[in-house]
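Researcher: Structure for this, please.
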Amino acid sequence: MAPSPKFIRSPIISVLGHVDHGKTSLLDAIRGSKVASKEAGRITQMVGASYISIGSIEDIVSPIKSIFKTELNIPGLLFIDTPGHEAFSSLRERGGSICDMAILVIDILQGIQPQTIESIKILREYKTPFVIAANKIDALDGWKDTGKMSFLESLGLQRDDVKELLDNKVYGLIGTLSEQGMNAERFDRVKDFTKEFAIIPLSAKTKTGIAELLLLISGMSQKYLGPSLYVSTDEPVKGTVIEIKELKGLGTTADVIVYNGVLKKGDEMLFIGQDGVIKTKIRGLLMPNVSSNNPNEKYIYVDSVVAAAGVKLFAPGLENVIPGSPCGAVGGMDEQELANQRKSIIFEKGNSEGLFIKTDSLGSAEALIKLLQGKSIPISKVGVGPVSREDIMFAKTMGTKNKFFGAILAFNVKIGKDILEISDNESVKIIANDIIYRVIEEYELWKKDEEVRIKNSLKNEVAFPAKMRVLGDCFFRASDPAVCGVEILSGVLKPGAQLMDQQCKIVGELKSIQDKNISIPEAPKGMKIAISVSGAVLKKDITGGMTLYTHLNRHDVALWKENHLLLNEEEKALLKEIDKMILMNMILEKSGKVV
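Model: Predicted structure, token format:
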């Protein structure tokens, strides 16, 4: 039997970067690029992606193609329409991304930002080659829009001072990238693309630099991806689910990126569902209708799609399919492996205590898990889909174990008014955002606010743990009130607390704290300050060198143990010391050894 013919598929490209640096604008610029009116130059809209044919690319890069002497043989480029790392990490196969290359967008004026660093981490983790789009060159002082899509052509028409300003910005970016361990250079100065990251200055607004960007991505894809772009017509279909949607007249549909093989109507496919692996038969394939003949028809039916492509499919049993999960032809994917992926990410508890997170897709869940783990924030459970009443009750249970885990982190999911009412009634905080980093930032702010609220509440009930040593050479007033110097050995000392000795005997009440004759609200570890104590007499109740503590009883200690996250490790150790001291004195009292 003759081997099945192999063909080169289109590389899959994703766009990442800091919020507001122009990811969406760049995708819009690529999709809306003006090309010569010829059939080969069409830009095809796909489900969840935009396909740019080699004809379009050749047309756009023609002014600079002779400079780089690059022959293109890929059929085109498939750009994932959803910008951001959530789309990137959602496209996954066995823990790796199916994106072949990526574009890291950086605002040339703002430079590297926190989300830029996170994007770099993601790209390195998935070992995905990428180029850097230094966006917004049109905002440089003096930059003139020449109407050209080539950066090099446009640069040649700029004033010398503008060229110098651009160079300074690019080299500033090269310097900050170097701090991240990256060797980068402007694309036309790169000597070895395997050792240097290429920076393409461009403007998504004016489309200047789009020519160089497309040429570099195309050339680098076919040169460095090599055999991975070759697929056979009879290789099993593999893809990833972008989104599950209801479509009028068809019911539940799945938006899928096909990255291997040829998907045909009637194929049997495997999907990961909420309750297990789903096996179903494809009843129909849909692509966006770009024809002007039937403008009322949003989609057209197709018999097959060839990798790489975005397509909408409908089949029985898609209702519970998990967005962001892999899918593939029956016989071409390991059903048990899919089942294991489902268990390992979504429905297995990570810790007996921790946060409950809900996301829109499997890839988003993985990304959020990694970010939370990086901050040592424990996770108790992960789910995909809208927040439900059951989720709130689970988080409420977590909150009874630890106040700061009585919350749900919801990334890019729907939250109904009824759910918000239930969460308010059950005192469960829902922290929702469609930017993944903001979810964590808002949780950290909420936790900080809760800590302050609880501390203020506790302050009215119990003293903060503190331990101090009396400075014998700093006795200033014997009594009414007694004034002496102390050094704070641990904890934080605050006025209003009663002070006790190592036998848990109260020696007086702390009225005020002074540092260099100035009253202060509190004194942390290491400070040497003067304290004013009512009810105490120096050299009788308080002697030089003795150790004093803020007075706590067993109930007070229990309250601090319940809110132990408000204390650092040293303060927790001090609390244990006081607790042990209280117990020892209780034992001595019962034995009659304490007078």
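Researcher: Any notable elements?
Model: The mean pLDDT is 86. Residues 436-459 form the longest helix (24 residues).
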